[in-house]
Every structure is written in structure tokens, then in C-alpha cells.
Design brief:
Chain lengths: 195, 391
């Protein structure tokens, strides 16, 4: 629960209210990434809590522990995916997709009575993988600093008289306030003795 | 009016909102002529600071023209006057204000009960920030209501451009205070971690205050070039060892004064494994801030030196080497800037051509481009260091 709900913080009565919303700083890939992060949480919790049901549905009996481990992996991926470090989260999701596909491919064997379910799940994971790849590429591109394109600001000293002439200029008429000043050190307080 | 409004993590919009009204006799309304995006706005953009509400107006660096004045503020403020608005709101009367500790004003946090719970004791109200500091609507807008306006303003002359004056609202006095509280003495070597807008102002302030050598630490070439322009020796922490270089530059003694102009969001870097751990902890809310700079400063600082913290921290930090700090007898000084304590002096230095803060502006855009500029500034894209917005 956000702290704002827990503490019942409310905006003060006279403060300006939103009349019409403008375009958001969130991009389409940000929103897609966020949706994928929440999907990870949903799937992760399901895998953690109902591995037996998933194993039976897909014909993967005996792999309940593996499914539970995949649930933990999904939750771990969700954390960076929902954070500002989206590329890290999406990369971990893509790696997870590969593991999911490898596991599901074992359920596509001819003798599996739930082979149709496994095929549907396989197709769904391929779709989600494509979304992960699209989101990853977009997010990486939008957060990337173009290499070698930085500007040179070496003409911006901000000191109109030049750095050398400005050094110590303020000491002529500025006294450091007592609360920001060390009133001498221990060495100053102890009289020096001749060797 | 138009305003940049917080709707959630990474979600800032240029909305149409109702106009602010005078609510108290000490209020004034200003028509904002210029405002800016601050590095600490990015902590809100990333939702690292608790107690924001969707619909909160952003911004704490603004200036403009007075268009309406409450009865009790008329003695000090008149319609048509040009003012810069400090990011701290101060009553001017409480014990802390009387001491010059304006960012600790005891009266202006209108949600003081939240401040008391979060911080132990309340601090001043701030514009465009968390409800822990009053949740006052900010100045990235066409109009701004200024509470306690009779004391919360800096009058500025008509003859100087907004570009030179706007940063009296925050980053110039903040950088100045960072240098002042380091108690710089002639002959000192001062190391400044972080060459963002506050770091840049800190570097200029340290030079004006007589530091013999200023060392600027960052990893972005454009920021390092701007730091070097003021005469700083630069260290790129992605290509050099900070500790080795600092020792090299100080004959193995370490800097006399170390200044943290980074704060909560230290750069996460494979070469600095503690930053990876901090980021992971931050994601799962086991830690609020990434204090790599603080750790490095304590290690690098000369025994008996001063550590000045001006970068914003939001809450809990882990693995701070207090043993090193205690045994080396390091002095810590830190605070949000007590803006009006410094602004008369700094305005005079601008008028006297000792400093021209406009050097830091790299992007000047219309307010409606604000949401996009939050992304640009966050990603350090297009060599962006400071964004000025024109409503």
C-alpha cells in the first residue's frame, strides 16, 4: 500500500486541481514494460502457489519443484522490470522466456496426453517473448546516450573574471559563519615546544 | 493555467490545472517567468521520495513577477515587483529562522505532523516536494502561490536577465553552502563528487572562497569539461581510480575537504560493486539511498578533514564506514540549503560579475516540453546538464 494511503495524506483544499491532463512522460515501451512486470508477478505467484495444477495441465508431472523455482525467478525479474532499470529486468525476462520454452518443448513429446495444452502455452510464451524483445529494444534505445556525441562545455567557466583571477575573490568580504567554522584544531590549542 | 504535474513514477504531464488563489494574508501570487528542473526533482520522478500524491505540481526553482499580494505581505512586497522564490519557505520569526537555519523553519511545514513522524522533528515547507515537507504546489507552472511571501522572496533588479538570477532559488546558494560548510581555507584541496548543476556551482564557490586546488569527480565528459572550464582538475571515475588519483594529487595526504554533490542516486557501475548491491537493495526497499559517494569520501578524506553533504539523501543507508570516519576525526556538515542566508551576498556577486550562473543552462524550452525534458535530463541525453523552462 502506498504510504500516501497508509497515512491518509490529502492535498490541501485550496491547491490547484487538475482540470485536463496533458501527454505523459511515459512512453509506450514504458507502459508495455510495466505491464510485463505485473504479468511476471501474476505468473510468478501462480507458479509458486499452484505448481501441481500447472504441471498437470501441461503434462509436466514430476517437475513441480522446477515450476516453483521458475515462479521465484519470475518474481525476481519483476522487481527490476518495474523499476527505473527496465533493461535489466527485461533482459532477465528474456532469459527466463528461453528457459520456459525449453521446458515446454519437453511437454510437446508425442506421448503427452496434454500436448495440446503445452502447444498453446508454448505459443503464448513465444508471443510474450516477442513483446519482451520489442520492449527491451525500445527501452534500450530510449535510454541510450549516443556515444561520442557529448558536447564540450570547456568555454563555460561561469567566472567572468576567469578562474585564476576569481580564486579567493570572496575571501575579501565574506566571513564563514561560526556554525560552519572550525575554531582552530587541537594542534593550534597546544603551544608548540622548541625541539 | 499550465503546470507540470506528478502522476506517478516516471509520469510527469503538462496539465491544465486551476489557478492558485490567495489563501492567507501572508500569501502572494507570482506569474512565473522562468523555472527549472532540479536534480532532486529526479528523485521524485523516480518515486524515491515518499508521500507524493498524483496531481502534485512539481518545481522548486522559479522566479517571476508579483501579480497579487495578501494584506499582511503588502509591507514588503508590491504588485509588479520581480522576485526569485527560494525553494525553502520560511516564516522569518521562529527560532531556526532567527538563527539563519531557514531550511529548518519550524512553522512553514503545513503538514508538520508528518514531518515530525518522518524526521523526528519537522523541517521547513518546500515547494513542489513531498507532503513530508508540506506538499506545497511547485513552480513549474504559469502561476505560483507563495506562502509566507513577506519573507519568502528575493527581490531582484530588472536590469539582469532571468538566466543569471533564476538559480538564486536553489542551486547557486546550495552550491555555495556546500563550499561554505566545508570551511575552505586558502591552500586547501577540495574534492567535489558529482558535476551536475549543484556540483558545478560548488566548484565555482570553492574557487571564489580560495581553494587552491579543486578536484571534480564524475564520469560524463560534458560535465567534466564544464568543471574544467572553472579550473578544476577532473577525475573520470569510469576510467580512473578515484582514490589513487586523489592521493596522487594530494601527495598521498587526501583532500582537506570533501563535498558530496551527488546524494541519493550514485551512479551504478560494474567497477564499483557496492553500487550494484545498493541498487538491488533499493529496488526491494531494503535501503533508500545509494551512498557510494559517502563511503568513498570517508575513505579518501584527509584525517581531521571536513565532509560536506549537500546532495539530497532520502532515508536509510547501509554500510557507512563510521569506524573510518570516527578514527580519522572527520567533521560532517550537512543540510538543505538555508537559501536566504546567502542570497543577498550572492546577488551582489552576480551584479559584481564575480559569478554568472547562466553558464550551467544547456537546454531552454517551453513549459509544455517539460515531460520530455525530464526524460532527457534523467538519461543525460543530448549532453543535458540543466533545463530552464519558460511558461
Amino acid at each position: 500500500m502506498p504510504i500516501t494511503n497508509a497515512t491518509q495524506i490529502a492535498r490541501s483544499k485550496g491547491d490547484p486541481r487538475v482540470v485536463r491532463k496533458g501527454p505523459s512522460s511515459l512512453t509506450g515501451s514504458d507502459r508495455l514494460t510495466r505491464a510485463l512486470g505485473w504479468f511476471s508477478i501474476g505468473l510468478g505467484l501462480t507458479e509458486l502457489m499452484a505448481p501441481g495444477f500447472i504441471a498437470r495441465t501441461l503434462g509436466l508431472e514430476g517437475k513441480e519443484a522446477l515450476i516453483r523455482a521458475y515462479g521465484a525467478r519470475e518474481l525476481a525479474s519483476a522487481v527490476p522490470t518495474l523499476s527505473v532499470d527496465k533493461p535489466v529486468g527485461l533482459a532477465s525476462r528474456i532469459a527466463g522466456d528461453v528457459l520456459d520454452l525449453a521446458t515446454l518443448s519437453s511437454a510437446l513429446r508425442p506421448g503427452n496426453a496434454k500436448r495440446d495444452n503445452a502447444a498453446i502455452a508454448f505459443a503464448l510464451v513465444i508471443g510474450v517473448t516477442l513483446l519482451d524483445l520489442v520492449a527491451f529494444a525500445d527501452v534500450k534505445a530510449s535510454h541510450r546516450r549516443e556515444r561520442g556525441t557529448h558536447r564540450d562545455y570547456s568555454d563555460r567557466s561561469g567566472l567572468p573574471r576567469g578562474p585564476q583571477a576569481s580564486r579567493g575573490l570572496a575571501r575579501r568580504d565574506f566571513d564563514t559563519p561560526p556554525d560552519d567554522r572550525a575554531e582552530g584544531s587541537v594542534a593550534d590549542a597546544v603551544p608548540a615546544t622548541a625541539p | 493555467m499550465r503546470a507540470l504535474v506528478w502522476h506517478g513514477k516516471e509520469d510527469i504531464r503538462c496539465d491544465t490545472v486551476s489557478d492558485p488563489q490567495i489563501e492567507d494574508d501572508r500569501d502572494a501570487i507570482i506569474k512565473v517567468t522562468s523555472c527549472a528542473i532540479c536534480g532532486s526533482d529526479l528523485h521524485l520522478f523516480h518515486n524515491l521520495i515518499p508521500a507524493m500524491l498524483p496531481g502534485d505540481i512539481m518545481g522548486h526553482e522559479s522566479m517571476g513577477e508579483v501579480v497579487e499580494v495578501g494584506a499582511a505581505a503588502k509591507a514588503t512586497l508590491k504588485k509588479g515587483e520581480r522576485v526569485v522564490i527560494p525553494f525553502t519557505i520560511q516564516c522569518g520569526e521562529c527560532e531556526q529562522c532567527q538563527r539563519g537555519n531557514f531550511s529548518l523553519c519550524q512553522r512553514t511545514n503545513r503538514k508538520g505532523n508528518l514531518g515530525d513522524k518522518a524526521f523526528g522533528h519537522r523541517t521547513a515547507g518546500l515547494f513542489g516536494y513531498t507532503h513530508l515537507t508540506g506538499g506545497y504546489p511547485g513552480g513549474q507552472a504559469e502561476f505560483l502561490r507563495v506562502p509566507f511571501a513577506d519573507t519568502t522572496h528575493i527581490k531582484v533588479p530588472d536590469s539582469i536577465d532571468d538566466e543569471k538570477l533564476l538559480f538564486l532559488s536553489d542551486i547557486l546558494p546550495t552550491g555555495w553552502q556546500a563550499a561554505v560548510q566545508a570551511d575552505i581555507q586558502p591552500g586547501d584541496t577540495v574534492a567535489v563528487w558529482g558535476c551536475g548543476p549543484v556540483g558545478q556551482m560548488t566548484i565555482r564557490s570553492a574557487i571564489l572562497l580560495g581553494a587552491e586546488q579543486v578536484i571534480a569527480i564524475d564520469h560524463l565528459p560534458e560535465r567534466l569539461s564544464m568543471a574544467a572550464a572553472a579550473g578544476a582538475v577532473t577525475i573520470n571515475f569510469e576510467t580512473e581510480s578515484v582514490i589513487e588519483r586523489l592521493n596522487e594529487l594530494t601527495s598521498g595526504e587526501g583532500p582537506h575537504k570533501c563535498i558530496d554533490a551527488v546524494g541519493s542516486e550514485s551512479h551504478v557501475n560494474m567497477g564499483q560493486p557496492d553500487t550494484l548491491l545498493d541498487r538491488a537493495k533499493q529496488m526491494v526497499m531494503l535501503e533508500n539511498d545509494r551512498p557510494h559517494v559517502l563511503r568513498e569520501m570517508i575513505y579518501a578524506c584527509r584525517p581531521g578533514g571536513v565532509i560536506s553533504i549537500i546532495g539530497v539523501y532520502t532515508g536509510l543507508v547501509d554500510k557507512i564506514p563510521m569506524g573510518q570516519a570516527m578514527n580519522k576525526g572527520v567533521t560532517f556538515r550537512m543540510a538543505q540549503a538555508h537559501v536566504p542566508r546567502w542570497t543577498d551576498d550572492l546577488l551582489r556577486r552576480i551584479e559584481d560579475d564575480q559569478i554568472d550562473p547562466s553558464f550551467v543552462i544547456t537546454h531552454k524550452v517551453d513549459l509544455s516540453d517539460g515531460p520530455e525534458m525530464y526524460r532527457t535530463f534523467r538519461d543525460k541525453a543530448d549532453s543535458c546538464i540543466k533545463v530552464m523552462l519558460k511558461p
